[in-house]
Amino acid sequence: MTITIHPLQPADWTAVAQIYADGIATGEATFETDVPTWEKWDAGRMPTCRFVAKSEAGAVVGWAALSPVSSRCVYAGVAEVSVYVAPAAWGQGIGKQLLQALVDGSEAEGIWMLQASIFPENVASVTLHEKCGFRVVGRREKLGQQYGRWRDVLFLERRSHSVGV
Question: What is the mean pLDDT of the chain?
């Protein structure tokens, strides 16, 4: 599938929300149990570095965005990544293109550290992040419960080679 990466617009929200819902439904993508409203999602993400992957037909098949990790100024250059791909488009390299867009966009914004929290069972996501320069720096055991089951989370980070060096 040939895709192009575009800035995420409010008009993309219906498709983005469905892809997010599909990720939630897997039980392996997030602790979230419900898709937030556009307003809540928008307020929790950085205003820059929001992308969608679109097919040749213009359908949104994936999205990626950055969230601030703290409001403290010392963490202004650190962001949390989110990458979701529609199930019908899994395994086609779309996640890698989206994550690379986040890496490139974050560096253009002066961000020196990206982090991700991933369930260890989500091997595809861990592998994707490692291919884009992330490394596992720790495992947080029994970080939270999901559907009555304690879940561990791997903590990954990617340090920029050009910002904050």
Answer: 95
- Give the helix/strand (H/E) hosting 2: none
pTM of the model: 0.94
pLDDT digits (tens, 9 = 90+) for 25-41: 999 999 999 999 999 99
Report the distance separating Cα 32 and Cα 23, nearest Å. 10
Decide: helix, strand or coil at residue 148.
coil
Which DSSP string do the residues of 33-87 spell out, in sequence order? -SPPPHHHHHHTS-SS-EEEEEETT--EEEEEEEEES-SSGGGTTEEEEEEEE-G
Residue 49's region, left for phi above 0, alpha for psi from -120 to 50, else beta, is left
- Residue 1 pLDDT exceeds 80: no
Other beta carbons less than 10 A from residue 2's beta carbon? 7
